[in-house]
Design brief:
5-stranded antiparallel sheet, mainly beta, 3 helices, 27 strands, 8-stranded antiparallel sheet
Length: about 350
């Protein structure tokens, strides 16, 4: 008898990677995503162009760049969110050459939530997949913000939409906690500073922000992308590097679709993004970078995507410094065993 491992049998209902070829023409519809996405991250693969982030809460044409502290800009890069994908405009950054899109399902634009001490303009939460998009106006004083997930989040990314403050990242993964923050748009190590989160852990209802201008500047519009773990669909944690091509193995309980890696304890190392769709069967040969506009690169070696996790196959410091501590986010392509008791195919 096989016990059910996850209630999510089709991961692409909630997250998917979609490759497409840009044509530099307006109204280019990208279909086949597998759901109506509410958060779309676009990157041109073969040249140095911006990471472009759009969400249904802020609305189409409102762009952020993960590699930059710049405030939100109006862009015709993504012009609509559609029932099975999205439509892009003529800009080459979003519609030129070989492109990749990473697509998450939340709950549309969502609605206001007044249960925290800081009201949200919109909270768009998908409790099934553990992902929410939250927009609120900063107060400058410590407060709680409702994320809508009903479970305790482990990672969230917060950006001031109106100012040139860096992206602040909260992670609760062993050696990373509420007394630290990371900056998504830089390669730096963790910062020992509890001000962003007021040194408070999130709850199943709220996350806390302090007086940091990147997370709670008075009068500024803020956006937060919030993630909690869902068994068989998402796994967030850390591993320790060994400096060997026979690197760490991380058991996630599912076949990965998307992995984000970052050394957080020391050094100046990038936010490496791998997925299962680019460059061959494993897809782990050429990361892109959240904090860089660089094209994808195969300089960092391979990560094996396995039926129940991933294994580091590179001695490069970006993913495997001896004794280095690495944060990972991993989302599923297929569960090890679904609620229909059907095991995923092994590698």
């Amino acid at each position: 008898f096989i016990m059910a491992y996850t209630t999510i049998n089709k991961s692409t209902d909630y997250f998917s990677t979609k490759l497409y070829t840009g044509n530099s023409s307006a109204n280019h519809a990208i279909t086949g995503v597998g759901h109506a996405p509410d958060f779309v991250w676009l990157k041109r693969r073969t040249s140095a162009t911006d990471n472009s982030l759009y969400d249904a809460v802020r609305g189409a044409t409102k762009s952020l760049r993960s590699e930059s502290a710049d405030p939100e800009a109006t862009s015709t890069g993504l012009t609509s969110f559609d029932s099975d994908g999205f439509t892009v405009g003529s800009a080459g950054t979003q519609n030129g050459g070989d492109m990749v899109s990473w697509n998450w399902k939340a709950n549309g634009q969502g609605s206001a939530n007044t249960s925290g001490s800081i009201n949200t303009t919109y909270t768009s939460a998908n409790t099934t997949s553990g992902f929410s998009i939250v927009k609120y106006t900063g107060t400058g004083s410590t407060g709680t913000v409702a994320h809508g997930l009903g479970t305790v989040p482990k990672i969230y990314f917060v950006k001031n939409l109106d100012t040139s403050d860096s992206w602040n990242v909260f992670a609760k993964t062993g050696d990373m906690d509420e007394n630290y923050r990371l900056l998504l748009d830089t390669s730096g190590a963790r910062i020992a500073d509890g001000d962003a989160w007021n040194s408070q852990v999130p709850t199943s209802s709220f996350f806390t922000v302090g007086s940091n201008t990147g997370t709670n500047k008075s009068g500024s519009n803020m956006i937060a992308y919030v993630f909690s773990e869902v068994k068989g669909f998402s796994k967030f944690g850390q591993y320790t590097g060994n400096g060997s091509a026979d690197g760490a193995y991380v058991c996630t309980g599912f076949k990965p679709a998307w992995i984000l890696l970052k050394r957080f304890d020391s050094g100046t190392l990038d936010w490496n993004i791998y997925d299962s769709k680019r460059l061959g069967y494993n897809g782990g040969d050429a990361p892109l970078f959240a904090n860089l506009s660089n094209a994808e690169s195969n300089d960092y070696g391979r990560i094996d995507f396995l039926s129940n996790g991933f294994k580091i196959r590179s001695s490069n410091d970006q993913v495997n410094n001896p004794g280095g501590k690495y944060l990972y986010m991993c989302l599923a392509e297929a569960p090890l065993v679904g609620s229909n008791n059907v095991p995923a195919n092994a590698r």
